[in-house]
Specification:
43% of the residues lie in helices and 9% in strands. By secondary structure, it is α+β, with helices and mostly antiparallel strands. The protein has one domain (6-221, 229-386): Transposase IS200-like (Alpha-Beta Plaits, 2-Layer Sandwich). It has a 5-stranded mixed sheet, sandwiched between helices. A two-stranded antiparallel sheet has the order 5-6. A hairpin with a 3-residue loop joins strand 2 (61-68) and strand 3. Helix 2 (44-58) runs antiparallel to helix 7. It is globular. The two termini are 27 Å apart. InterPro entries: Transposase_17, Transposase_17_sf. Residues 13-188 form the Transposase IS200-like domain. It comes from Crateriforma conspicua.
Length: 388
Amino acid sequence: MPRAKRTEQFVAQEVCVVHVVQRCVRRAFLTGVDPVSGCDFSYRKEWIRRRMEALASAFGIDVLSYAIMSNHLHLILRNRPDVVAAWTDEQAAIRWLKVFPGRRLEEHLGEPTEADVQRLCRDKPRLEEIRNRLSDISWFMRALAEPIARMANRQDDCTGRFWEGRFKAQRIVDEAGLLACSMYVDLNPVRVAVGDSPDSVTHTSAYDRIEAAKGKQITSAAFDLQPVSVSDASKQSLEVPTLKRRRVKKAKQHSSSGRRIRRDAWLANLSLDAGKLSSDPEVHREGLRCSNRGYLNVSLREYMRLLRWTASVGRESMRGQQAVPKDVARVLRNRGMEAEMWSELVWNWQRYFGRSGCAGSPAAMKADAEKSGRRWHRGQGAVAAFFS
């Protein structure tokens, strides 16, 4: 069976959750320690994380989970056309121009001006197209991958591909699948023995949430969503030396807003708010992320308990080896999952869902297949044993 079309997995006009994998060319260790040359490119992981943080402040897309590895990265994204629809024309325009400012002839015009924003707002057909793109996962990944490739190629003084090709996408069709996939992503470094526990491995969403719970803060990489006035742009071009403008621009690239934020403030909330309706966009007003909506019906404490326990049982199936803690069993049982088989599903995610266009319980996968005109999805039968 051929891989599902992107239009079958997600569309910009419909809220959906997608597991994304982007690999480096030839799976080379371009964001880690190269075993051939011995060069350490691990610092590029922070490039990727900061770029994701910046894009989370501009796009109508929630970053639910992520893990940046030495030769690939995992993301779980949720597009939010409902949030984009709640933005004013000016808000949508400035977000787009911050990410894609267009061709500039002079350096001082690198930041969008008020005139640029108003010009775009008057072009209604163009603005409607931009609203669709702001909630499109493909455009989010394009805005993430291309600048990283350019920076790495410039540093290595080379040309050509940095990423293997287009990202691989997998739609998550229910909460059980989302919980398992989120665990798989957060435990990816532990799975390949980069660290012993999620507490000790950086550049994962789990580590960010753990550190944030301790009160740790970072310098925000979010875009400053304010246009430059035409008078200020003209004044800078006439009065500020070019060298100084370059230094200011470089400083703004490191921290556009200059704010200090919680380490996980740019990530989507983990827990759903029971007091909010599913139709409420829960727009985030502070310019750090798309919305305030969570994505799992568990508390952060329950999630971390399950995550650490799953990491501790290791790669082997735990059937008959040790008793499942009562609180862990309760969380899984409430989602129709067999607690004794949980570790096998998370640690061997690729075996069961690696070639499938979607992931979730057999019933949810079947319903999604029928919706897209298929009879079934790969892995649909293989995962039946994991669900009660």
